[in-house]
Specification:
2 copies of one chain form a homodimer.
Chain A lengths: L1 E3 L5 E3 L2 H10 L4 H14 L3 E3 H15 L1 H7 L1 H6 L6 H12 L4 E3 L2 E4 L4 E4 L1 E5 L2 E8 L10 H18 L4 E6 L5 H10 L2 E3 L9 H8 L12 H9 L5 H5 L3 H8 L3 H13 L5
Parallel strand pairs in A: 1-3, 8-9, 9-10
Antiparallel strand pairs in A: 1-2, 4-7, 5-6, 7-8
Chain lengths: ~270, ~270
């Protein structure tokens, strides 16, 4: 069985790739094997990669709606856009549910000029100045320029305030290799997609159970934008609203509201 | 007489604006007055700003073709794009004709990672690392992030090499106010459009008589791209070519070639 990639290249089906995705969202090996079997028996011998994704999504959703939502996490975060502010709000909430105290956005005097930092976070005596880099397009990596300017920014603030604020960059995409090297060398904390191992963006989200509102399968762009405009960025915040409030903010019917609440309840934090 | 601005606003004609432009390119007060008179007598009472520009260009060109070319400098530099490399080449030549020695682009080991600098320039014992920021759109200002990342870059290089390289940012557009403040405070040299007074990009160009090839009125985008691909970025370099070379590189007719050479000769450096 051969897979036709988006760039037109053809390669043999790699079952391991499917199993890795299922494992990442916490699915069982049994589920993974079931999906591989389904792909191999129900799809043509030369199959576009999109069709494999579709089968994967459909099967995971049918088996376990919660895992299905989690499969969409990457896309859900990108739907917090187009501006970067909802991601800043969202990341601050993830930090708060991970034991930090977090304040959104703050001005700091530097030796040379005044700077705005997206989030000021503290935990156990350490103080962090967080720069959030939101990219709506997943292909866009944060590059070394980001790491360099954030370092210079925090340096300028520290010089003025005689402080040891630690720089922290949070992004919903990946970091280029040299940006990772530079950040590691200069002591800049990075939170990115799949990086660093065990403390990546998706790790923090799953550990804190802080899912973005945009993960609800029944939601639309318009519904999300309306909720975000009212600072409802977490599924948890959504669940705190009454049905009347949801309908008023998002303009949905009573029936649609029920669907959304059912989906949100599946992801209700167990805290 | 009223001027209709691009954004639709209407304001009274400010004669001083026309006189300032003429003075900047080295035109006489007599020429400036003549143009103001022409604008006031030949244009309608409510006139789009573009029509005033056109009259200004036409009159300057008719009076003095060299000044006419200089009027186009801003646009000519933006035509060095779409990529940033021709501007780097061009700026290095401007530096060379301003008494610096300049080398294009170089890799430097930093404390943390390796960095590429667009130009390495020296003069009288001082060593500069230049970052060129080319913007094809004039509205786009270089912002403080640029100043911050260039500072961090040179800092990393200096720490590794125990050197005192001076950071230098050259751009064809303007700098935001806080970028200027930060650069001044951190000792970053800036060369931008109209900044700093007396040593701005257009000042350096006029003093060194280093006009970009894209300033020739008879040139087209295709001709310029072909010449630039062969590293002919200065009018001066163009004048070193034979007619046969010009025709071969740019693919123009003998007649067109004559026009271009005539225009280039008007701008021939007097060195």
């Amino acid at each position: 069985m051969f897979v036709i990639k988006k760039n037109g290249e053809i390669e043999p089906l790699q079952e391991e790739k499917i199993k890795t995705v299922v494992a990442r969202i916490g699915g069982s090996l049994e589920l993974a094997n079931k999906i591989v079997e389904k792909v191999k028996t129900s799809l043509p011998d030369r199959v576009p990669v999109e069709l494999i994704y579709k089968t994967l999504f459909d099967e995971v959703h049918r088996e376990n709606p919660v895992l299905g939502c989690k499969l969409n996490l990457k896309k859900a975060i990108s739907e917090l856009g187009p501006t970067g502010f909802p991601f800043e709000q969202y990341f601050a909430k993830v930090l708060e549910h991970s034991g930090y105290s977090a304040v959104l956005p703050m001005l700091f005097e530097g030796k040379c000029v005044q700077h705005e930092m997206d989030v000021y976070a503290t935990k156990g005596g350490d103080e962090y100045l967080v720069e959030c880099k939101f990219h709506q397009y997943w292909q866009k990596k944060s590059d070394i320029k980001t790491a360099l300017y954030v370092y210079a920014k925090v340096l300028d603030i520290n010089e003025k305030n005689k402080k040891q604020f630690k720089p922290w960059i949070a992004t919903n995409t990946k970091f280029s290799m040299d940006a990772v090297d530079y950040s590691h060398c200069q002591g800049i904390k990075i939170t990115a997609w799949k990086h660093p191992l065990g403390e990546s963006l998706e790790n923090l989200i799953e550990k804190s159970n802080c899912y973005p509102i945009t993960i609800l399968p029944s939601g639309t762009r318009e519904i999300f934008q309306r909720l975000i405009a009212e600072h409802v960025v977490l599924v948890e915040d959504f669940l705190k609203l009454s049905k009347e409030e949801i309908q008023k903010i998002s303009g949905v019917s009573a029936e649609k509201c029920e669907y959304l609440l059912q989906e949100a309840n599946l992801l209700r934090p167990t805290r």
